[in-house]
């Protein structure tokens, strides 16, 4: 799913546009016991309670694609009788079968590692997908199909913080009663994925509040895969791939070319319909990028094996997670130089007076500690 597809589903989480018809939920205590289970029609809830649930659903699809929001593919060899088929069974039941709901909750409780209480919410929705004109404007009365899905949220339940409050009956200030409060989701997932304005039953959208804590044992149990690398791991894996392929001391020209080619990729993508978050590089694309950047065919001979060892053959690297997308950094033990991605070639390395030096052309607009400065020619 891309940004626009996620945004389209999020827009349905209001009282006026709500496509969620039913939800099933259970409260799990510290000992992993279900202490409360319910299945209700969402729109039958009191208005304030409804608003809290819709807020939870909205937050379950918030964050950055490639970091907090991850597209996860189901293993193709496990579709029959595997995780995808079990989730389809849950969706197709519309949460009306208590046995299927219980089985689903049990699978989450068994694999979700969490200290404390939490609340599992499974919401069933049927979204009438409106048509789109050639200019991409929405045609309100032109529904093309119905996107039926399950959104699952796992929310920590914590005691409210101690606080003083006013007791109207006793007309005094005292300590408020501490209630158990359902927090924003820690993990969530939408199945099937909403792509090209239709359901993709081979993929799910997974949310993690903390981008670096994807909980691979949980994703393995739910999706049949340990899931992709975290954003930080993707960046580290990319850097390691370059080092392992070329050697520990990589020519600076190659690193500048890699950064330039990535920036070119991002710039080209700005003119397309897809946001930069959706640019993913599998092993062949990374290999092509390195070749284009000056890495020799000889150095790339064993690249596929190297990629498998470092990143995993099925994992992809999201371009927006690479450090060079934000800035190009050259560091020595004493000095750090940071440049905008489009200015990498302004940093040169030259042999001057027998010493290798980093050279940056100076024209105007120089500041030192925030103070405008002029550079003078010491020989004049």
Strand content: 25-35%
Radius of gyration using CA atoms only: 26 Å
Ranges with pLDDT <50 over ≥5 residues? Answer: none
How many helical elements?
10
Shape: globular
Number of beta strands: 22
Quick check: average pLDDT?
Answer: 86
Helix share bin: 25-40%
Major sheet: 8 strands, antiparallel
Q: What separation lies between the terminal Cα atoms?
A: 61 Å
Structural category: alpha+beta
State the gist of this model.
By secondary structure, the protein is α+β, with helices and mostly antiparallel strands.
SSE topology:
Layout: H1 3-10, E1 20-28, E2 34-41, H2 47-59, E3 69-73, H3 83-92, H4 98-111, E4 117-129, E5 131-132, E6 138-139, E7 145-159, E8 164-167, E9 172-175, E10 180-182, E11 187-191, E12 193-195, E13 198-200, E14 203-208, H5 216-223, H6 231-246, H7 252-270, E15 280-281, H8 283-292, H9 303-310, E16 317-318, H10 323-326, E17 328-331, E18 336-339, E19 348-352, E20 355-359, E21 367-368, E22 371-372
Antiparallel strand pairs: 1-2, 1-4, 3-14, 4-7, 5-6, 7-10, 7-11, 8-9, 11-14, 12-13, 15-16, 17-18, 19-20, 21-22
Helix pairs in contact: 6-9
Search tags:
eight-stranded antiparallel sheet, globular, two-stranded antiparallel ribbon, 380 residues, 22 strands, alpha+beta, 28% strand
